[in-house]
């Protein structure tokens, strides 16, 4: 007999074990996420055998919990959906939570409508909250601190807030970018950075710089700005002006890389033969560009799954199992470097 | 004295009138959407003068209405957020609804969890529902038909459902694409179409074909498939094989156009000099590509605002003012055609 959850009901872990797949895979397959039809069938069969019914109200009725989880993003609604990274993250959270039998909802009101948010949160009887923003957000901070239910952050929360969180290794991503360009034979590498006053760009450049230092090199130029394509256009032009024989670029976002690619194309430089470029994020656009972008992918499914499991454990056992988890980023090698 | 809403409170229309801007502009400025800082200041000043407080619970407390509106998408959660078009539409709906003092929320559960959805809808006390999906969706259809609150569709609802909706003129978009390529001097134009069994691609190709017919021409080739880049890659290669001197391409999506661009680049064809390309959707990626994509933009802010106003009118007056609205698509001219 397999181990079962507290109340004898099968958990997603039981299903994954029986199906012989990872918990995140089982969760995806049951939550409507991407999975091969063979995997989905296997997981569904295991769920059937164990009488696991994630997406109906069965699990929600097994306690005094509502089974509802609210997702919060500290961004204007417009910015939220224009940011491919955050919207992809929300999608993954939806899949992970639904796969765990939880019912996620997202309040689409400006974050400064804290009153409206609190109202809907109360009415929904949400058991917990996941804050899905990588930015330093302060609007909702006050409210979240005094919330009477558990909160998990995606990304390290702003300084004063003590909440469990999941995060990625930006330093490690920068280091991988540096190693990749070195291995390609690049010697004169520039960094087109994100905003100067945020920790993420700082960490990415630090990792990149340390990789170069191992070969006795340092970046020939660093230019900080926004994560947008416009910054990539202006910065790449400035780099070519100052260092005409630049042979490698580490862009802190795929959008920056798209701008840099255009300038190089217009100047007749071949990518990756003359100048190799690595981006960051692995947005949909990274595949659409020509050449397809080599970039650092954040493990959104793993991050979403981890946040879900942290919250689930807290709801089931009344205490946190871990208070922070950091995930590596992966180098997705395509054609630009 | 200005005309005021039913209960004497200023409406968004009053604010827009006083500020001398369109209702949609006022709504965007107050809802956290894009607006110049000058416009935002003007609208905020008008809102202050009229004591219009959209984003706090003031308006929600003026009746027995909850002020909550649920957004529904008949897609797997994952697909929802991988589709830039739908996620941009949701963002605009969030902005329009918040600008009208409504509190929008999105259920992030697979659409076949109708029970969970109904549960959360009931608990939220939502006044109404907006269904934001351009696809033929059937999973939620049964539930939506028997819902005890008003529903507005974005996109014409599936055959049997009689609900008010807003839609776009796909035929007109195809016609604009044809005119544009003809004006550029193209004579041998191919269409890389979306799925064969859906009305949208049919209408787009019909408009395109009619534009060409005015000059006594017809498409040299039509290839249908998915809206994805892979279809663009395969279809563009097939077109070059069959019609080597093709000089224009109408792609039914920006992703298809991205695939076609890559094939043309690899074959050494210059865009737009040798082959001009027009896409459809105006996704973020359209600006990131080189050359930047000329494409047909769907007026998402207008569609979102219209759906919001239809629902608002129904909630305030107990009856529908209009039952369907169709919006033109606009040709966004960039570098590819």
From TrEMBL, chains A, B:
<dbReference type="Pfam" id="PF00356">
    <property type="entry name" value="LacI"/>
</dbReference>
<feature type="domain" description="HTH lacI-type">
    <location>
        <begin position="10"/>
        <end position="63"/>
    </location>
</feature>
<keyword id="KW-0804">Transcription</keyword>
<dbReference type="GO" id="GO:0000976">
    <property type="term" value="F:transcription cis-regulatory region binding"/>
</dbReference>
<protein>
    <submittedName>
        <fullName>LacI family transcriptional regulator</fullName>
    </submittedName>
</protein>
<dbReference type="InterPro" id="IPR046335">
    <property type="entry name" value="LacI/GalR-like_sensor"/>
</dbReference>
<dbReference type="GO" id="GO:0003700">
    <property type="term" value="F:DNA-binding transcription factor activity"/>
</dbReference>
<dbReference type="Pfam" id="PF13377">
    <property type="entry name" value="Peripla_BP_3"/>
</dbReference>
<dbReference type="InterPro" id="IPR000843">
    <property type="entry name" value="HTH_LacI"/>
</dbReference>
<dbReference type="InterPro" id="IPR028082">
    <property type="entry name" value="Peripla_BP_I"/>
</dbReference>
<dbReference type="InterPro" id="IPR010982">
    <property type="entry name" value="Lambda_DNA-bd_dom_sf"/>
</dbReference>
<keyword id="KW-0238">DNA-binding</keyword>
<keyword id="KW-0805">Transcription regulation</keyword>
């Amino acid at each position: 007999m397999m181990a079962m959850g507290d109340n004898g009901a099968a958990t997603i872990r039981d299903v994954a074990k029986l199906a012989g797949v990872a918990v995140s895979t089982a969760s995806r397959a049951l939550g409507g996420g991407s999975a091969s039809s063979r995997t989905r069938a296997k997981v569904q069969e295991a769920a059937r055998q164990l009488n696991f019914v994630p997406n109906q109200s069965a699990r929600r009725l097994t306690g005094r919990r509502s089974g509802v989880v609210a997702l919060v993003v500290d961004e204007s609604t417009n910015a939220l959906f224009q940011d491919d990274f955050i919207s992809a993250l929300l999608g993954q959270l939806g899949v992970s939570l639904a796969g765990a039998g939880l019912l996620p909802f997202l309040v689409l009101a400006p974050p400064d409508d804290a009153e409206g948010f609190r109202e809907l949160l109360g009415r929904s009887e949400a058991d917990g909250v996941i804050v899905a923003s990588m930015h330093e957000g302060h609007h909702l901070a006050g409210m979240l601190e005094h919330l009477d239910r558990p909160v998990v952050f995606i990304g390290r929360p702003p300084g004063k807030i003590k909440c469990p969180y999941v995060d990625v290794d930006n330093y490690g991503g920068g280091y991988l970018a540096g190693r990749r360009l070195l291995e390609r034979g690049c010697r004169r590498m520039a960094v087109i950075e994100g905003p100067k006053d945020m920790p993420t760009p700082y960490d990415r450049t630090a990792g990149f710089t340390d990789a170069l230092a191992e070969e006795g090199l340092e970046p020939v130029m660093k230019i900080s700005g926004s994560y947008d394509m416009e910054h990539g256009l202006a910065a790449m032009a400035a780099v070519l002006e100052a260092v005409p024989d630049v042979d490698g670029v580490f862009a802190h976002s795929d959008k920056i890389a798209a701008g840099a690619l255009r300038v190089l194309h217009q100047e007749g430089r071949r990518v990756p033969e003359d100048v190799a470029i690595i981006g960051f994020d692995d947005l949909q656009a990274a595949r659409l560009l020509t050449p397809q972008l080599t970039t650092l992918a954040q493990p959104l499914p793993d991050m979403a799954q981890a946040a879900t499991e942290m919250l689930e454990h807290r709801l089931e056992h009344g205490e946190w199992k871990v208070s922070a988890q950091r995930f590596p980023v992966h180098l997705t090698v395509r054609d630009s470097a």
